[in-house]
């Protein structure tokens, strides 16, 4: 089962937001995230808030699109009530779970729920995640016709034994087929990879990197495997059935991927993400890293508006019950102090290629910059222009960069 939700302050049943969210709101972009918590099987490494059919406890996937639309209406009313300015939705992201386990008509209906309450910005980015074996050609064309602009495929690996260890159900050759269908439908394509799976060699990883590039995507994500407590994979490692991940091998894999992506014309813009051009960066994910506003609908979904963060109840059953009662599905929330907001900016913006404005740092914190340059952790030329941007070595040691800046 997924991990527990964090503690926080009580969330009001009417969803009321404090007036502090109004400060600077007109200058922040607004996005919408929709969490679809369904999976056909639970992958052994996964700690996300997802549920297979046997874990739903009597709730029905068929009711879900309607529940999300009710939460979206609740969200629009909540934002209007506090006096937030009307802002167009710049990005929409359907994540999970596997959103494409639902019929395309359900995703279309939920997107329609967004556009009923908020205007979509010109050129808005509208993404859904998908497993390679959860869509066909007709499904992808239906998404494009509904207004989706982008699909992110969970490829993870091109090596059968690695996919088996991860409990992934698709065949490697399926990825090239679905990415072609998506491009033919006019959708931008992203592929997600995971490196450092127990038993995965550097040669295995190189094979996956080259296979991902062969699909001619617009965007690639590559994430180091994290073994989460309570997962099947963690239990297998504890019993000695599979080896523990090797951090040195992780670093070698990251460097191999970064070099291969660079040769293919991709540039990194966040530690785990590369795009073919600035126009094909994931603008929705960048909104998370730069502190924009978003309303997140669905069980366990985390929202953020103006330094106020809240998270919904985890399970689809209690979520549906709260939606039916017309009250906020939030489990708890936190109101960030100005100091916490600033520290989060340092943590997140030192991960991106655009970097952190050095003037956000105190005079004492800025004293760490020359030493970070000398140690090859941040870019000296960017620092001269007032930005803290990690080097390749700095990306591998991102926590060290933040620790030394904050002291």
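Q: What amino acid sequence fits the structure above?
A:
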């Amino acid at each position: 089962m997924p991990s527990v939700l964090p503690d926080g302050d009580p969330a009001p049943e009417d969803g009321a937001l404090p007036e502090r969210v109004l400060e600077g709101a007109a200058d922040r972009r607004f996005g919408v995230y929709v969490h679809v918590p369904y999976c056909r099987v639970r992958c052994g490494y996964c700690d996300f808030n997802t549920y297979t059919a046997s874990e739903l406890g009597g709730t029905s996937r068929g009711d879900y699109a309607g529940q999300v639309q009710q939460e979206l209406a609740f969200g629009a009313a909540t934002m209007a009530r506090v006096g937030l300015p009307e802002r167009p939705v710049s990005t929409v992201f359907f994540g999970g779970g596997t959103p494409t386990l639902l019929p395309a008509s359900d995703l279309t209906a939920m997107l329609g729920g967004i556009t009923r309450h908020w205007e979509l910005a010109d050129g808005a980015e509208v993404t859904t995640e998908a497993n390679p074996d959860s869509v066909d050609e007709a499904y992808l064309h239906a998404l494009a016709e509904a207004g989706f602009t982008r699909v992110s495929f969970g490829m993870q690996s091109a090596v059968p034994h690695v996919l088996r260890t991860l409990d992934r159900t698709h065949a490697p050759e399926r990825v090239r087929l679905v990415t072609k269908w998506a491009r033919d439908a006019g959708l931008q394509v992203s592929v997600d990879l995971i490196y450092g799976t127990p038993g995965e060699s550097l040669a295995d990883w190189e094979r996956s990197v080259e296979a991902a590039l062969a699909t001619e995507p617009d965007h690639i994500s590559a994430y180091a495997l994290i073994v989460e407590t309570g997962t099947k994979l963690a239990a297998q490692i504890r019993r000695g059935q599979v080896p523990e991940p090797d951090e040195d091998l992780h670093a070698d894999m990251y460097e191999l991927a970064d070099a291969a992506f660079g040769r293919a014309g991709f540039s990194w813009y966040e530690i785990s993400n590369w795009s073919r051009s600035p126009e094909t960066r994931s603008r929705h994910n960048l909104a998370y890293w730069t502190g924009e506003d978003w309303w997140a609908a669905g069980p366990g979904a985390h929202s953020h508006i103006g330094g106020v963060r809240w998270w919904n109840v985890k399970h689809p059953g209690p979520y549906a019950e709260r939606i039916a009662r017309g009250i906020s599905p939030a489990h708890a929330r936190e109101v960030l102090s100005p100091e916490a907001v600033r520290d989060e900016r340092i943590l997140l913006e030192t991960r991106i290629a655009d970097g952190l404005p050095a003037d956000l740092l105190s005079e004492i914190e800025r004293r760490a910059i020359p030493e970070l340059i000398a140690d090859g952790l941040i870019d000296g030329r960017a620092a001269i222009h007032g930005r803290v941007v990690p080097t390749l070595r700095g990306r591998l040691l991102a926590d060290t960069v933040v620790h030394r800046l904050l002291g």
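Q: And what stands out in the fold?
A: The longest helix spans residues 64-82.
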